[in-house]
Amino acid sequence: MAISAKMKNFVANGSMIRKMFEEGARLKALYGAEKVFDFSLGNPNVPPPDVFKTTLKAVVEADEPDLHSYMPNAGLPAARAAIAARLRAEQNVDVQAENVVVSCGAAGALNIVFKALLEPGDEVLVSAPYFVEYRFIADNHGGVLKVVPTKADFSLDLLALEAAMGPKTKIVLINTPNNPTGKIYSAESLKALAAAMKRRGREYDRSIYLVSDEPYRKLAYDGAEVASPLANCDDSIVVTSYSKELSLPGERIGFAAVNPAAEDAKDIVAALSLANRILGFVNAPSLMQKVIARLIDQEGQDRGLPACVDVSIYQRKRDILAHGLRAAGYEFFMPEGAFYLFPKIPVPEDEKFLDLLKEENILVVPGSGFGAPGYFRIAYCVDDATILGALPGFTRVIEKAKTLSKA
Amino acid sequence: MAISAKMKNFVANGSMIRKMFEEGARLKALYGAEKVFDFSLGNPNVPPPDVFKTTLKAVVEADEPDLHSYMPNAGLPAARAAIAARLRAEQNVDVQAENVVVSCGAAGALNIVFKALLEPGDEVLVSAPYFVEYRFIADNHGGVLKVVPTKADFSLDLLALEAAMGPKTKIVLINTPNNPTGKIYSAESLKALAAAMKRRGREYDRSIYLVSDEPYRKLAYDGAEVASPLANCDDSIVVTSYSKELSLPGERIGFAAVNPAAEDAKDIVAALSLANRILGFVNAPSLMQKVIARLIDQEGQDRGLPACVDVSIYQRKRDILAHGLRAAGYEFFMPEGAFYLFPKIPVPEDEKFLDLLKEENILVVPGSGFGAPGYFRIAYCVDDATILGALPGFTRVIEKAKTLSKA
Fold first, then answer.
1. Is A151 at the interface with chain B, CB within 8 A?
2. Lesser CB count within 10 Å: N end or C end of chain A?
3. What pLDDT, in 10s, does the model give residues B4-58?
């Protein structure tokens, strides 16, 4: 056998979303793209903001001699400084350039953080529903993902989390605003979580680090504030990307920022830089780093135009979808951020329900892929027409499902 | 302790080149940049070719809707097709788009290949002198680097390599043209290596894969041909990057290509794609993939202008340096490619010699960093002035070292 047994197993079983892709491609070929309602992937459909486009053009035109050159593994000093300024302004925490490592997106940042922190067998605690890749990323570096359900409203179950922290717990991983639920964790819950981590850390004589994966931070609705894990927990690391806020998922640009108040903050940054190199990222793409450095001024403010996609577009999409689903009788918590809606499957048979959706050419991801069977995820970062076109199908399916389920 | 014990050790000890950087920065601050002769890093100083620059501008100007979007983990179909066409033309092997995974540089490609192939404890066989990062990359994925010296002229020691292949050997890793020696491996030696791998593979009932790391393929001098590992070994995978041939080391763009004749070629590509995702690369940067796709036509030829840096510049630098070092009495094999020269340290005491170079503000990397004590590496991808300015120092040091050594 060529590939390792573990990878063989991953390839065979870890392809839930890939299967959705393929199913989508098959259906689109069969019925035409406009007849297929593909809500499977979190691929932003809102264009990057104008200020990004003009800055990219300006940087390419200027063609400075070191535009495409090697740099320190932690990133361009100007990019690190801009990111630190942004975090100081945004989260009211005294982050400096030296606390920042520019990364290949949030997935790259998570990999270097786990590589830096985890001993073999160490546990990463996460609340379900959770982003499916976390399990792979923990496993990449010898870690084990340990899953604790959230409360029914998708808020953190603090007692359950504290009870799950054991002598092997090294990281508590949160994702706020959450994929797939759209939940934002309150400042109070973050403070309480930090206190629980301290208590259990003392008990086991080790530091437990809070890792906050927050690529949807700027995608919050109805004026909701996204509480800062950095501001509420000393031993904390933020990982994020520009994929969603600037609609650049293909460019792989993001960062990890270590709380300057964290234990061994300096060692962690050194390890993150080394991990960036030896895991093969070497550094985040240089051209994008130059652009990022120019988008933010020294006070951490966007220069001129907002360096963010138009969030009101996503909020409108959420509202159209939520309104239609409620009218059809679906139950869900209104997402506070991100671009996912995570309704309950209205019957006990998940697969039967998902098959009915597929018969309507509606593609979603089953909640079981997020450690939450009984739910399904709708990624609503799609054209309004796709949302509007799918609502009659969603309505027919809930009625059909209830009839079938009773039969 | 925050970071893992292994990473703590890596950070403390794995920083030979970082120490050189810091020493370089210190010396430049002290004496002025023009008085310091920094040959420590393989950071190309020849600008990217014009055709790259104009294509990048054109792609940014065109601003297609999916320019920065997600894509399949293996890469943009157009980029995979262009890379396959290039390999067919360049190496006379029937590579198709489906055999190619676009990667974040060669370091990214090596990581996904090792992740895909290695079982815990599997061995990666490499010839010394070798690029120091290989050890980390093997270790990232549970592998163990096993080192076999080359012959005195830096050609492959085929008997020693075959003798070193055991029941745990999964990969034989070569780097041609070689960093740090500049050696190019002959077609005959590759054929013989492939035969040895087959023999030993049969003996242990497993396939051994040849992984060829070849980012310097286009940097070959005096018309030297770089034999194709793909053409000479069925179970083979090429990993490479555009960092050197297009002078883009900061952009992290390269690829892995699996020989279509390899056992389980299709499985390997599926595993590489998955590894690209879960290791956090997700996909190679999209903008650069669009550019790469446009540089090559369907016959695998450069469109119009050469899509490669001006190699004659590096050849001239090599010649100036080689001429000067020979005149001073240094012994070395003339590099056939890449941009490194790897002379013998002329006295038995490596450190004493390197200290003398440092006294002349000449920064090089000790051969011990490449598994080859008794040598040192000069990266001559620097201004001519740096080479010319350093030659008197090199001359003084060899005389001083011989005097001191006799004393």
1. no
2. C
3. 999 999 988 765 666 777 778 788 888 988 899 999 988 899 999 999 999 999 9
Note the pLDDT of residue B406.
Answer: 72
The shortest C-alpha distance from A45 to chain B (Å) reads 9
Q: Return the higher-pLDDT residue of A298 and B115.
A: B115
Q: What whole-number distance in Å separates Cα of residue B87 and Cα of residue A213?
A: 39
What pLDDT, on the 0 to 100 scale, is given for residue B15? 58
Distance of alpha carbon B376 from alpha carbon A378, whole angstroms: 58
Instruction: For residue B365, give the 3-state DSSP assignment.
Output: strand
Q: Do B251 and A287 touch (CB under 8 A)?
A: yes
For A54, A301, A303, A310, the CA distances from A307, given in Å and listed in that order, are 11, 9, 8, 9
With contacts defined as CB-CB under 8 Å, which chain A residues touch B118? Answer: 4
**pLDDT for the residue numbered B337:** 98
Rg (CA), chain B: 21
CB B275 within 8 A of CB B111: yes
Give the separation between CA B257 and CA B264, rounded to whole angstroms. Answer: 13
Residue-wise pLDDT tens digits, A334-391: 999 999 999 999 999 999 999 999 999 999 999 998 999 999 999 999 999 999 999 9
Q: What domains lie within chain B, and their CATH numbers? A: 5-48+309-406 (3.90.1150.10), 50-295 (3.40.640.10)
Give me the pLDDT at residue A23, please.
78
pTM over 0.80: yes
The C-alpha torsion from B323 through B327 and B332 to B336, rounded to 10°, is 10
Cα gap A255→A100, rounded to integer Å: 7
Reduced to 3 states (helix: H, G, I; strand: E, B; else coil), residue A241 is strand
What are the backbone dihedrals phi and psi of residue A179, each rounded to the nearest 5 degrees, phi first? -105, 115
**Cα gap A333→A395, rounded to integer Å:** 18
In angstroms, the CA A61 to CA A75 distance is 22
**pLDDT, mean over chain A:** 95
What is the ipTM, given to two decimal places? 0.96
Q: Which helix (H) or strand (E) holds A324?
A: helix A311-328
**φ, ψ at A127 (rounded to 5°):** -90, 135
Chain B (47-86) residues lying within 8 Å, Cβ to Cβ, of chain A: 47-48, 53, 56-57, 60-61, 63, 65-71
Q: Can you list the residues of chain B whose pLDDT is less than 70? A: 14-18, 407
CA of A273: which chain B residue's CA is closest? B11
